[in-house]
Specification:
Layout lengths: L4 H11 L4 E5 L2 E4 H17 L7 E5 L4 H13 L2 E4 L6 H10 L2 E6 L4 H7 L8 E4 L23 E6 L7 E6 H8 L27 E4 L6 H12 L3 E4 L7 H11 L3 E4 L1 H14 L11 E5 L5 H10 L4 E8 L2 E10 L8 E2 L3 E3 L5 E3 L6 E2 L3 H7 L2 E2 L2 E2 L5 E5 L5 E6 L4 E3 L2 E3 L1 H9 L4 E11 L3 E10 L3 H9 L10 E4 L13 H12 L5
Parallel strand pairs: 1-10, 3-4, 3-5, 5-6, 9-10, 9-11, 11-12, 12-13, 26-27
Antiparallel strand pairs: 1-2, 7-8, 8-18, 13-14, 14-15, 16-17, 19-20, 21-22, 23-24, 25-26
Helix pairs in contact: 1-2, 1-3, 2-3, 8-9, 9-10
């Protein structure tokens, strides 16, 4: 059979109706309410004339309505479309126009932008506020006339590293299968009916705190398998990352799984725990995972120092290729290496690729689809642009993205590799590595560092561990790297600032 999330979640709701499905601050939404509100929204969308696989934008922060809207779309055979709430009017209009959005579910706090852009997106038939209770009212179980299918899409827009946002088209069946390994209660993928899920859900599932914005794929794909396991998805109430709220929530809600984005989230957690080691009880935590940005070893060791029962998991992937490789850290283990999934390989040119359950391509963009999802030796692969090398033991060494690589005197330098080395230096809080123009060598390596260290110490530390040409020629010290809300670096921003400072300096 082909799998559809709404079918699975309907079964879960029937098995644990009173258990919490969504938790936001002091509020908890039971599975029965989650299901009925999703059904109410599905009914409202269909009553407005939306047709099979029409697109519905989620213009929402982290809140129960976000996942309720996704569930409602899946119920009605419609396509959820994530929307970055940091975007400007023009960026929102361009995204919704590209996605052919037919309805928008929005947070009331975003109403001013909604009013400004209404006339610019004439294809939108319906605007639903998260506080418009009639639109979410309970209805009998709803099954659309066209039914549901594993071919129904989840459309996730990703900014990538260059160009306009691209809509990655995931079949739900492919997404269910690729995420199944992350589920506390794995689905019986070879079952002939979704009814096989029922006996597996014999009580409430895991409590998982998703700390990054659900509008990003890395957060949503952590939430989906939690729900499929009958668990509860916990979200934070603040508009930005608040380490105190996070740790308060972990302790109060007895969170078992924590999903964050690399050191941007993990380093403040370690700092808070170091400063007040007796303030928070984090003994309930069993796993901390990161996707979208990598951990440094010093930060991982700090997490494990505060809970030696933890497993810390670094996930390599992208919106276009999930679960490419994993590094698993434990208190008793040595430095973790990245182990590729069975469907991952490193191509001859060094690019990481994944086959099997991968997206169909980019929405309305056949040229970029062909470039990212090529046919190799008769098989279709996803090749998002990450580079790696294969170690003798079969593990992989991550090098970085082709678009951020630095060419200095003909040698290629991968920023992520150098960043990882610099992060291991005591006193370094955060780092970005970029290239600036150089008349003789083409580019010079520059490190942008947050921390209490000296330029000479950074350069010497790198030269002692990797090839000297990879070491920065200059270090720019800043108070904050201004990471995006998803924890990712804007290498282009720091390349521009470093160029302003060092681009015309003598080598």
């Amino acid at each position: 059979m082909d799998w559809n999330f709404a079918d699975v979640w309907d079964v879960v709701a029937s098995r644990v109706p009173d258990a919490p499905a969504l938790v936001h601050g002091p509020d908890a939404v039971a599975w029965s309410v989650f299901e009925s509100r999703a059904a109410g929204l599905a009914s409202t969308l269909l009553a407005a004339g939306l047709q099979h696989q029409d697109k519905v934008a989620q213009y929402l922060p982290n809140c129960p309505a976000y996942l309720e809207a996704v569930y409602g779309c899946f119920k009605a055979g419609l396509v959820p479309v994530n929307t970055n709430y940091r975007y400007s009017d023009d960026e929102i209009v361009a995204l919704w126009d590209n996605a052919d959005v037919a309805a928008v579910v929005f947070d009331p706090s975003y109403a001013p932008l909604v009013e400004r852009v209404r006339t610019r997106v004439p294809r939108v038939k319906l605007w639903v506020s998260a506080e418009d209770e009639p639109a979410w009212s309970s209805v009998p179980r709803l099954d659309p006339a066209w039914g549901r299918s594993g071919d129904d899409l989840w459309l996730v827009y990703t900014g990538g590293t260059t160009g306009a946002p691209k809509g990655v088209m995931w079949r739900q069946d492919d997404l269910v299968r690729v995420l199944n390994g992350r589920a506390a209660v794995p689905l019986p993928l070879d079952a002939s009916s979704v009814d096989a899920v029922g006996p597996l859900i014999d009580g409430p599932g895991p409590v998982a705190l998703i700390a990054s914005p659900l509008m990003h794929a890395a957060a949503s794909v952590r939430a989906f398998p939690v729900l499929s396991s009958g668990g509860s998805v916990v979200t934070l109430t603040g508009s930005g990352f608040d380490v105190v709220e996070l740790l308060d929530t972990v302790a109060a809600r007895r969170v078992e799984q924590l999903a964050i984005v690399g050191d941007a989230f993990a380093a403040p957690i370690v700092a808070a725990l170091d400063a007040e080691p007796d303030r928070w009880d984090i003994s309930s935590l069993r796993t901390i995972s990161s996707s979208g940005a990598l951990f440094s070893e010093t930060v991982v060791r700090g997490l494990l120092r505060h809970n030696d029962a933890l497993t810390v998991i670094d996930v390599v992937g992208a919106s276009e290729a999930m679960g490419v490789a994993f590094a698993t850290w434990t208190a008793a283990g040595d430095r973790a290496a990245f182990v590729p999934s069975p469907d991952t390989r490193v191509l001859p040119d060094g690019r990481l690729a994944r086959r099997g359950n991968i997206p169909l391509g980019y929405y309305k963009d056949p040229d970029r689809s062909a470039a990212t999802f090529p046919i190799i030796d008769g098989e279709r692969w996803s090749v998002p642009g990450d580079y790696a090398s294969v170690e003798p033991d079969g593990t992989i060494r991550l090098l970085g993205r082709g678009t951020t690589s630095i060419n200095t005197a003909g040698e290629k330098v991968w920023p992520e590799e150098v960043e990882g080395v610099i992060k291991s230096l005591a006193g370094v809080v955060d780092v970005a590595v970029v290239g600036v123009p150089d008349a003789r060598f083409g580019e010079r390596v520059v490190a942008v560092v947050v921390g209490d260290v000296t330029e000479s110490a950074v350069i010497a530390h790198v030269k002692a561990r990797i090839a000297h040409y990879k070491a920065p020629r200059h270090v720019l010290f800043v108070d904050d790297l201004e990471r995006r809300e998803n924890g990712k670096l804007d290498h282009g921003l720091w390349k521009s600032r470093a160029t302003d400072r060092f681009g015309n300096s003598s080598a």
